[in-house]
Structure formats: structure tokens, C-alpha cells
Amino acid sequence: MVTAGPDGGREAPLPPVRPDAGSGSPPAGNGLGSSLAYLLSRAERSVNRALAAALAAEDVSVEQWRILQALADGRGHSMGDLAEAALMPHPTLTKAVDRLVERAVVYRGADPADRRKVAVFLADRGSDLLGRLEAGIAEHHRAILASYGTARTGELMRELENLVRALEG
């Protein structure tokens, strides 16, 4: 399979998924297909590509959706907490939050726990936007379940959570 690069050009072909990848033992060899980091990145790219398509109708990026989801708990979040929750570096998060502020879907205000600090909050328009996105997100999730299987998807999600806990201590 040949992929398109970020500028629309063609990148090198991706190595095929190894048939022994599900055998319970790590694949032999030293190609990209034997790298856990590479396989996780490939899976993330595939999932996010379909997710981005589901979000496109409302002009929301995957990163912006993560921010909105993190704020959906109704509490204000510091930029540091939000960066961690949305899996974004601070400069990228700041730009994304600025764009969401311009759209009036989030706003900055005093942190209720410490009025000297600034927090980001979900505005009513942001809640409405999340509501409009729900159908597309649900369809995206159903498509994954249909192609990979409900039980396998659940197991994969549990195993990924276990991996994160093990690596982050």
C-alpha cells in the first residue's frame, strides 16, 4: 500500500501487516512491522483518519474534539491539565484553544479553585457542538466494531489501557 504524504505527495510503500502479528509472540525480524511504536502509530493514523471524516462536517479537528471532550465534564481545566488530557503539546494546545475561543465554543475564565489561575471552560455552544458530533462519533465507533469485532475491540482497549499503566507506572 502506498500512502499520501502530508503535502499530498507519495510516500514509500508501507510494509504489509505480518501474518504472525496475532500469534501471541512478537514478530521476528527488525523491519518497521516488528516495532510496537510503529504499529501503534499506524493504528492511530487509521482510526484518526476515519474520526476526522466524522468530525469534518462541523469543521472540528480530532485534536479540537479531544479538547471539547475533556471539557465536557463541566469543570474548568488548566492549560496544563488540558494538554495532558488532549495529548497535545502546550503550544499546539494554545493555538487550538484560541481557535475554539474564536468560535465561541470554549472560553477562558478564572479557575474556581484558585481565582489567580486561568481555566478553560466549555461554552453552551460547545455543548451544542458536541451534541451535533455525537451521531458521527457513534457511527465511527460502530464501524470499528463492525470491522474488528466487539469483543476484540473491547479487549484491545483494555490491553492498551494496561500497556499505558505499565509504561507510565
TrEMBL record:
One example GO MF annotation: DNA binding
Domain (HTH marR-type): residue spans on this chain: 33-169
Pfam families: MarR_2 (PF12802)
Coiled coil: none
Keywords assigned by UniProt, alphabetized: DNA-binding, Transcription, Transcription regulation
Domain of life: Bacteria
Region span, Disordered: 1-29
The protein's name: Transcriptional regulator
PROSITE patterns: HTH_MARR_2
Gene3D superfamilies: Winged helix-like DNA-binding domain superfamily/Winged helix DNA-binding domain
DNA-binding keyword on record: yes
Keyword DNA-binding: yes
GO terms classed as biological process: response to stress
